[in-house]
Write a structure and sequence with these properties.
Elements (H helix, E strand, L loop, with lengths): L3 H11 L3 H9 L6 H4 L2 E2 L3 H14 L6 H11 E2 L5 E2 L12 H4 L3 H17 E4 L1 H5 L13 E2 L12 H11 L3 H18 L19 H12 L2 H21 L1 E6 L2 E6 L13 H7 L6 H16 L27 E2 L1 H20 L3 H21 L1 E2 L4 E2 L2 E2 L4 E2 L9 H5 L7 H14 L24 E2 L1 H13 L3 H25 L6 E2 L19 H14 L4
Helix pairs in contact: 1-4, 7-21, 9-10, 9-11, 9-21, 10-11, 12-15, 15-16, 19-20, 19-21, 20-21
């Protein structure tokens, strides 16, 4: 459906070039994403010709009003790209509801189950036929979107959405979304950040294989696994070949991964913001580097946070100090370890024993590297590593605990590692926040910093602790699950919305900060809460 020529033409409208620059820098929209999500009324070349005429007529200096009129005349709102879609596999009373033992929480779960219908999207037939006039990446099946300004699929969001869909027994919808991702891997070799062409060049945390695994855990469809295994391996190979770096520690070398990007220029969906950020930078190289680093931060899914700031070997500074590609992140490498283990298990199930041995070897080497580079016994936790300064990043981030969730630690040291991680959480007073675990303890104003608490991080921490089977960890997981459910529930009672993030310092308040207003919907929030309800508040 997509091809490089078509993407190149519409990319000249939505991804780069003077038209994009003129519209976005006029700031005729409050949100830069609004324009790049619009649909062209004419083929791309005609739009570009009409824009050239506007620039000739105005001596390359159109007024904001003229730019606005040009957009009104030549573009439509993004809503026209989607047809109404009701998931066929949605049913009134899925089995999990009757097992929730608290009446109020059961009603809450009913409301969340109902939201899947609101978040369902299907590319309209007309939009499919005119895909060259849109920034959408075409996919063959309907999707569940995050919500709010996020009207297309997002890579890592989909993992938690799928967990919720499986609880709601929406197996057909889940398989369709997995097939969308497999289609995209087949076409591009990886899964982009989201379902728009301006997201090409960067991905998000690699959760296709975990998503496939949770589906397989429920349906156990070996034929489907057999059909899909090559594309699952292809996506894993993208991270192994395009995102790895060599780290020297003493006389040993280790391979681990960083987040990255392979596109040029400002982010189209945040164009004016990025151009504003480089206003104090001198030289094309510095500006180009900033654009690449900020897109790499978007690939992390955590855009933005002090976690990616590198200033004199610290995490202080601002977006201008962003050096994402210089940081070996705990979460990415733990997830990749888990992916290698899952590919080993999948190939073993399929009796592809040679491939199974291959992935077992990768997982063993990866675990050795994670333990050598990222685990710090004196701190009792895993820490990101700063390649530029050759130092560990000894700051609290919820992502530091991802190896518990991914099982990325030696079973020989299981008991000791878990106890040390628990002590680390206590030392940082993590249980003292009433609204959940803050993403960081740095009050920078960025949305992935204090006081914001995010659903994926809560899920990774809660279910990571639960997975360990350590009694203290089980107790902490239950306490954090109660806290997170309560803040979501109290917020819902007040607003009748689910937010993308919450304030850890308050109960029932949505989060803030960052480049856009807090969004409601919200796909991964719903999935995480349903998973908590079923696992902690249900008679299973």
């Amino acid at each position: 459906m997509d091809n490089s020529d078509v993407i190149s033409k519409r990319g000249d409208v939505f991804c780069k070039g003077p038209l994009l620059h003129t519209v976005q820098m006029s700031k005729i929209f409050e949100d830069s994403k609004t324009f790049v999500d619009m649909k062209m009324r004419h083929p791309p070349q005609k739009i570009l010709d009409k824009f050239e005429n506007l620039m000739l007529k105005t001596l390359s200096s159109p007024t904001d009003q003229q730019v606005k009129q040009f957009v009104v005349d030549n573009f439509e709102k993004s809503e026209v790209e989607f047809a109404n879609w009701h998931p066929k596999d949605w049913k009134e009373n899925p089995g999990f509801l009757k097992n929730i033992n608290n009446n109020e929480y059961r009603e809450f779960a009913c409301a969340l189950h109902e939201l899947w219908k609101d978040l369902g999207r299907k590319i309209s037939k007309k939009a499919e036929e005119e895909i060259d006039c849109s920034s959408l990446i075409w996919v063959p099946n309907p999707i569940i979107v995050p919500g709010g300004r996020f009207r297309e699929f997002y890579y890592w969001d989909t993992y938690w959405i799928i967990r919720g869909l499986l609880i709601s027994e929406m197996f057909e919808t889940t398989k369709g979304m997995l097939n969308n991702f497999l289609h995209i891997v087949d076409q591009y070799g990886y899964i982009p950040n989201g379902g728009r062409i301006y997201y090409l060049g960067r991905s998000q945390p690699p959760t296709l294989i975990p998503s496939f695994k949770v589906y397989m855990d429920v349906v156990n469809d070996l034929d489907y696994l057999r059909q899909s295994i090559n594309l699952l391996e292809k996506e894993f190979d993208f991270w192994m070949t395009k995102r790895t770096k060599l780290i020297k520690l003493g006389d040993k070398e280790y391979t681990l991964a960083t987040y990255g990007n392979c596109s040029q220029g400002p982010r189209p969906e945040s164009y004016a913001e990025d151009v504003g950020s480089i206003s104090t930078l001198e030289g094309d190289e510095a500006k180009s580097s900033f654009y690449s680093e900020i897109k790499a931060a978007c690939e992390s899914g955590m855009d933005f946070t002090s976690r990616w700031f590198v200033s004199n070997g610290t995490n202080k500074g601002s977006l201008r100090n962003i050096k994402t590609t210089s940081i070996i992140p705990v979460d990415l490498n733990a997830i990749l370890y888990s992916n290698a283990v899952t590919l080993y298990e999948f190939n073993k199930q399929l009796q592809n024993f040679e491939r199974a041995d291959y992935y077992r070897g990768i997982s063993e080497r990866w675990l050795e590297a994670v333990e050598a580079v990222l685990w710090h016994e004196d701190v009792g936790v895993w820490l990101d590593f700063d390649l530029e300064n050759g130092v560990r990043r000894d700051y609290f981030y919820a992502s530091n605990l991802t190896p518990l969730w991914a099982g990325c630690y030696s079973r020989d040291a299981d008991s000791k590692v878990v106890e040390m991680a628990l002590n680390y959480l206590h030392r940082n007073d993590i249980l003292n926040y009433p609204g959940g675990v803050p993403q960081s303890l740095e009050p920078t104003g960025e949305q992935w910093d204090f006081p914001n608490a995010w659903p994926p991080s809560q899920h990774i921490l809660i279910f990571g602790l639960r997975r360990t089977q350590n009694p203290r960890a089980q107790t902490m997981a239950e306490e954090l699950a109660k806290k997170w459910l309560n803040t979501n529930y109290q917020a819902y009672l007040k607003t009748h919305h689910m937010a993308e993030k919450y304030d850890a310092s308050l109960v029932g308040h949505s989060g803030g900060g960052g480049e856009y207003r807090v969004q409601f919907g919200f796909g991964w929030t719903n999935g995480v809460v349903l998973d908590i309800l079923v696992n902690f508040f249900s008679d299973m």
